[in-house]
Design goal:
Blueprint (H helix, E strand, L loop, with lengths): L1 H39 L6 H8 L10 H14 L8 H37 L1 E5 L2 E6 L5 H27 L3 H6 L2
Antiparallel strand pairs: 1-2
Protein backbone atom coordinates (compact mmCIF):
# COMPACT_ATOMS: atom_id res chain seq x y z
CA UNK A 1 0.00 0.00 0.00
CA UNK A 2 2.86 2.36 0.83
CA UNK A 3 4.42 1.64 -2.56
CA UNK A 4 1.16 2.54 -4.29
CA UNK A 5 0.89 5.78 -2.30
CA UNK A 6 4.50 6.69 -3.12
CA UNK A 7 3.70 6.31 -6.82
CA UNK A 8 0.28 7.95 -6.94
CA UNK A 9 1.09 11.11 -4.98
CA UNK A 10 3.85 12.41 -7.32
CA UNK A 11 1.79 11.64 -10.43
CA UNK A 12 -1.31 13.31 -8.97
CA UNK A 13 0.74 16.34 -7.95
CA UNK A 14 2.20 16.74 -11.43
CA UNK A 15 -1.22 16.33 -13.08
CA UNK A 16 -2.77 18.89 -10.71
CA UNK A 17 0.07 21.29 -11.49
CA UNK A 18 -0.44 20.85 -15.23
CA UNK A 19 -4.19 21.51 -14.90
CA UNK A 20 -3.60 24.61 -12.77
CA UNK A 21 -1.05 25.94 -15.28
CA UNK A 22 -3.49 25.18 -18.08
CA UNK A 23 -6.19 27.28 -16.40
CA UNK A 24 -3.71 30.12 -15.72
CA UNK A 25 -2.53 30.20 -19.33
CA UNK A 26 -6.12 29.95 -20.59
CA UNK A 27 -6.93 33.14 -18.66
CA UNK A 28 -3.74 34.87 -19.86
CA UNK A 29 -4.20 33.95 -23.54
CA UNK A 30 -7.95 34.62 -23.63
CA UNK A 31 -7.76 37.92 -21.72
CA UNK A 32 -6.92 40.24 -24.67
CA UNK A 33 -9.98 39.13 -26.63
CA UNK A 34 -12.21 39.43 -23.55
CA UNK A 35 -10.87 42.97 -22.87
CA UNK A 36 -11.71 43.87 -26.47
CA UNK A 37 -15.24 42.44 -26.13
CA UNK A 38 -15.77 44.33 -22.85
CA UNK A 39 -14.47 47.57 -24.40
CA UNK A 40 -16.81 47.30 -27.40
CA UNK A 41 -19.81 46.67 -25.16
CA UNK A 42 -18.77 49.40 -22.67
CA UNK A 43 -18.88 47.02 -19.71
CA UNK A 44 -16.47 46.77 -16.83
CA UNK A 45 -16.07 43.50 -15.03
CA UNK A 46 -14.58 42.64 -11.67
CA UNK A 47 -11.57 40.35 -11.58
CA UNK A 48 -13.53 37.20 -10.76
CA UNK A 49 -16.19 37.94 -13.38
CA UNK A 50 -13.48 38.72 -15.98
CA UNK A 51 -11.71 35.41 -15.26
CA UNK A 52 -15.05 33.60 -15.58
CA UNK A 53 -15.67 35.24 -18.96
CA UNK A 54 -12.18 34.29 -20.24
CA UNK A 55 -12.79 30.67 -19.25
CA UNK A 56 -16.21 30.48 -20.92
CA UNK A 57 -15.55 32.03 -24.33
CA UNK A 58 -17.24 30.13 -27.16
CA UNK A 59 -14.10 30.00 -29.37
CA UNK A 60 -11.15 30.76 -27.09
CA UNK A 61 -7.51 31.05 -28.07
CA UNK A 62 -6.73 28.36 -25.48
CA UNK A 63 -9.74 26.36 -24.29
CA UNK A 64 -9.89 25.62 -20.57
CA UNK A 65 -9.69 21.99 -19.41
CA UNK A 66 -13.41 21.81 -18.64
CA UNK A 67 -14.20 23.04 -22.17
CA UNK A 68 -11.97 20.35 -23.66
CA UNK A 69 -13.61 17.68 -21.49
CA UNK A 70 -17.11 18.77 -22.54
CA UNK A 71 -16.09 18.86 -26.22
CA UNK A 72 -14.49 15.40 -25.92
CA UNK A 73 -17.64 13.95 -24.31
CA UNK A 74 -19.93 15.51 -26.93
CA UNK A 75 -17.80 14.39 -29.90
CA UNK A 76 -17.30 10.88 -28.54
CA UNK A 77 -20.63 9.90 -27.01
CA UNK A 78 -23.31 12.32 -28.21
CA UNK A 79 -22.54 12.55 -31.94
CA UNK A 80 -23.63 9.84 -34.36
CA UNK A 81 -20.74 7.57 -35.26
CA UNK A 82 -21.28 8.33 -38.95
CA UNK A 83 -20.75 12.08 -38.43
CA UNK A 84 -17.38 13.29 -39.68
CA UNK A 85 -17.07 15.33 -36.44
CA UNK A 86 -17.34 12.19 -34.28
CA UNK A 87 -14.09 11.16 -32.62
CA UNK A 88 -15.06 7.51 -33.06
CA UNK A 89 -15.46 8.08 -36.81
CA UNK A 90 -12.07 9.84 -37.00
CA UNK A 91 -10.43 7.07 -34.98
CA UNK A 92 -11.82 4.55 -37.48
CA UNK A 93 -10.54 6.61 -40.42
CA UNK A 94 -7.07 6.73 -38.86
CA UNK A 95 -7.04 3.01 -38.03
CA UNK A 96 -8.34 1.94 -41.44
CA UNK A 97 -5.79 4.16 -43.20
CA UNK A 98 -3.01 2.70 -41.09
CA UNK A 99 -4.08 -0.88 -41.81
CA UNK A 100 -4.51 -0.11 -45.50
CA UNK A 101 -1.02 1.41 -45.62
CA UNK A 102 0.37 -1.65 -43.87
CA UNK A 103 -1.36 -3.96 -46.36
CA UNK A 104 -0.18 -1.97 -49.39
CA UNK A 105 3.37 -1.75 -47.99
CA UNK A 106 3.46 -5.49 -47.37
CA UNK A 107 2.07 -6.26 -50.82
CA UNK A 108 4.42 -3.81 -52.55
CA UNK A 109 7.47 -5.12 -50.66
CA UNK A 110 6.53 -8.69 -51.50
CA UNK A 111 5.98 -7.84 -55.17
CA UNK A 112 9.33 -6.05 -55.38
CA UNK A 113 11.09 -9.00 -53.71
CA UNK A 114 9.51 -11.46 -56.16
CA UNK A 115 10.41 -9.16 -59.10
CA UNK A 116 14.05 -8.87 -58.02
CA UNK A 117 14.36 -12.62 -57.53
CA UNK A 118 12.66 -13.25 -60.89
CA UNK A 119 15.04 -10.88 -62.71
CA UNK A 120 18.10 -12.38 -61.03
CA UNK A 121 16.84 -15.87 -61.88
CA UNK A 122 16.22 -15.01 -65.53
CA UNK A 123 19.50 -13.15 -66.01
CA UNK A 124 21.54 -15.60 -64.01
CA UNK A 125 23.98 -14.23 -61.47
CA UNK A 126 27.47 -15.68 -61.82
CA UNK A 127 30.19 -15.53 -59.24
CA UNK A 128 33.46 -17.21 -58.32
CA UNK A 129 33.28 -19.33 -55.20
CA UNK A 130 36.34 -21.29 -54.17
CA UNK A 131 37.48 -23.48 -57.08
CA UNK A 132 34.26 -23.02 -58.99
CA UNK A 133 34.96 -20.15 -61.35
CA UNK A 134 31.54 -19.65 -62.90
CA UNK A 135 28.94 -20.58 -60.33
CA UNK A 136 25.47 -19.55 -61.59
CA UNK A 137 22.97 -18.59 -58.88
CA UNK A 138 19.27 -18.99 -59.58
CA UNK A 139 17.41 -17.92 -56.41
CA UNK A 140 13.81 -18.83 -55.61
CA UNK A 141 11.30 -17.61 -53.03
CA UNK A 142 8.56 -19.82 -51.67
CA UNK A 143 5.25 -18.34 -50.55
CA UNK A 144 5.76 -19.82 -47.09
CA UNK A 145 9.02 -17.87 -46.79
CA UNK A 146 7.21 -14.63 -47.54
CA UNK A 147 4.47 -15.39 -45.02
CA UNK A 148 7.09 -16.27 -42.40
CA UNK A 149 8.95 -13.01 -43.06
CA UNK A 150 5.73 -10.96 -42.66
CA UNK A 151 4.84 -12.73 -39.41
CA UNK A 152 8.38 -12.27 -38.05
CA UNK A 153 8.39 -8.54 -38.88
CA UNK A 154 5.01 -8.05 -37.16
CA UNK A 155 6.16 -10.05 -34.13
CA UNK A 156 9.41 -8.08 -33.91
CA UNK A 157 7.51 -4.78 -34.06
CA UNK A 158 5.09 -5.85 -31.32
CA UNK A 159 7.90 -7.15 -29.10
CA UNK A 160 9.97 -4.03 -29.67
CA UNK A 161 7.10 -1.85 -28.41
CA UNK A 162 5.95 -4.10 -25.57
CA UNK A 163 9.27 -4.58 -23.82
CA UNK A 164 9.91 -0.86 -23.04
CA UNK A 165 6.26 -0.36 -22.06
CA UNK A 166 6.31 -3.31 -19.64
CA UNK A 167 9.62 -2.19 -18.18
CA UNK A 168 8.31 1.35 -17.67
CA UNK A 169 5.09 0.08 -16.08
CA UNK A 170 7.08 -1.68 -13.37
CA UNK A 171 9.17 1.39 -12.56
CA UNK A 172 8.48 4.35 -10.34
CA UNK A 173 6.86 6.99 -12.64
CA UNK A 174 9.46 9.65 -11.84
CA UNK A 175 12.29 7.20 -12.46
CA UNK A 176 10.69 6.05 -15.72
CA UNK A 177 10.51 9.66 -16.94
CA UNK A 178 14.24 10.06 -16.30
CA UNK A 179 14.96 7.26 -18.79
CA UNK A 180 12.92 8.79 -21.62
Amino acid sequence: MDSFRSKIIPVTTILAGVVVLWYVFAVILNAPFQRDVDQRSNTTSGTVEFIGKTLSQPKPTLPAPHQVAVNFFENTFLRPITSNRSLVYNAWVTLSSTLLGFAFGTALGTAIAFAVVYVIRMVGFTMAFGRQAELVLRPTIAGADVALAVVLVIAAAVLATLQPALKASRMDPIEALRHV
